[in-house]
Write a structure and sequence with these properties.
Number of strands: 8
Order of helices and strands: HHHEEEEEEEEH
Distance between the termini: 93 Å
Largest sheet: 8 strands, antiparallel
Mean pLDDT: 76
Oligomer: single chain
CATH topology of the largest domain: Jelly Rolls
Helix content: 25-40%
């Protein structure tokens, strides 16, 4: 085989190597979620985390492992709770996770903080709006209850902001509240006396 044959072979090999490098570079820069790089399932992630956890336990005596203080089992447990929506303290205040039942007399005001939830169980009340007239969201029927509207019983109400909104009690009432609130007596408010606080 002459020099010309060797040159042809070398050129062919260079073309093949260049093509392979281009293909591998192109494959590594694909967008996630495409057919080349599909999304993974939770079970796959669980399996890989379990493998890492097992490897961590098996290599605890290995000098090459510099992260022996990391508790992968605990991390996996917390991540699993978060995925299942059970991680305490995330997205809600655990101190106000339950409804509190309070008894209110006619003339009293229930002033709620932002994100408070209210359900009128018995008695009657009307909506207290803010200074601009905005009311309270009735989640049960999906409408906004404006200032002075009669509160329907057993409807879930949510106060969007801490701007003085709440319920004006007309007749003795029992109310379920989740979140921060204060109870004001009508007489005390008129005389400038500090209202009673029922913060939860």
């Amino acid at each position: 085989m002459g020099k010309k044959g060797y040159r042809i072979i070398i050129c062919c090999l260079l073309l093949i190597v260049t093509g392979l490098l281009y293909t591998s570079t192109k494959a590594s820069s694909v967008d996630p979620g495409t057919i080349q790089d599909p999304l993974v399932t939770k079970s796959y992630v669980d399996e890989k985390i379990a493998e890492i956890s097992n490897n961590q336990g098996n290599s605890s005596g290995n000098n090459q492992n510099t992260n022996t203080d990391i508790d992968y089992a605990k991390i996996y447990s917390e991540v699993s709770k978060y995925i299942d929506g059970k991680l305490e303290g995330v997205g809600n205040n655990t101190a106000t996770a339950k409804f509190e039942i309070i008894e209110l007399d006619a003339g009293q005001k229930l002033i709620c903080k932002d994100s408070s939830e209210v359900i009128l169980r018995a008695g009657s009340a009307t909506i207290i709006g803010n200074e601009t007239g905005d009311g309270i969201s009735d989640i049960t029927i999906g409408i906004d209850l404006a200032m002075g509207v009669v509160v329907p019983k057993n409807h879930l109400l949510i106060v969007p902001r801490d701007d003085g909104r709440g319920l004006q009690i007309v007749t003795k009432a029992y109310v379920m509240v989740k979140g921060e609130y204060s109870v004001e007596d009508e007489v005390a408010s008129e005389e400038g006396v500090e209202p009673n606080s029922g913060e939860s």
